[in-house]
Predict the structure.
Amino acid sequence: MTKRVAILISGGGSNMVTLVEAMHSGRIEAIPVLVLSNIPDAGGLAKAEALGVPTAVVDHTGFKGDREAFDAAVHAALQEADPDIVCLAGFMRILTPDFISKWDGRMLNIHPSLLPKYRGLHTHQRAIEAGDKVAGCSVHLVTSELDAGPVLGQTEVEIRDNDTPDTLAARVLTEEHRLYPRVLADFVRQ
C-alpha cells in the first residue's frame, strides 16, 4: 500500500519541495496529501500548490499562546488528509506531548545539526563558536523531548575556517535536500 505523507512547514519550503518531487518521481514510494503551514503567507504554500499538493493553514497567531488548541487544530487538518506519516520540514513550532503521542513513530523531522549536538535553534553559530570541524544535519523521529528522538540518518558538512553561520547553513541545506528524501524513502518501506 502506498503511504500518504503530510508535510508541515513555516517558511519557503525547500525541504518540502525536495520531498514532494521525490514522491512524484517515484524515488519515494508515497504520495503527498497535504502541506500545512502555521504562517498564512509562507512561500512554501505557493510552491506546494504549483506541485499539485493540497495546502492548509493553521495560523498560530490566532491561538494567543494556547499550544493545545493550536495543536488540536493542526491535528484536525491532518486527520482530514489522513496521512500515514507526518514530515516536519522547517515547521517552527514546538508541538505538545499530546499531539506528538498521536503520531508516535510516524512523525519525522529534519534538524540542521549532528544530533544530539545543538538541539534547538542557532545550530550553525553554536557549532562555529564551539570550534567544531564538522557540522551537518539529522533526520529523526519526533518525540516529546525537543530534537531528541532516534536519529534515522545524518550527513556531515566540513566547517571551513572562513565560515559564517549563513555560509555553513547554505551548505548544510544542500545536504538536507539529499538526506531527507533518502531517509523518508527508507522509512516508507518499513
Remarks:
- The domain at 3-188 is CATH 3.40.50.170 (Rossmann fold).
- The chain has one domain: 3-188.
- Helices lie at 14-25, 43-50, 67-81, 97-102, 123-129, 165-188.
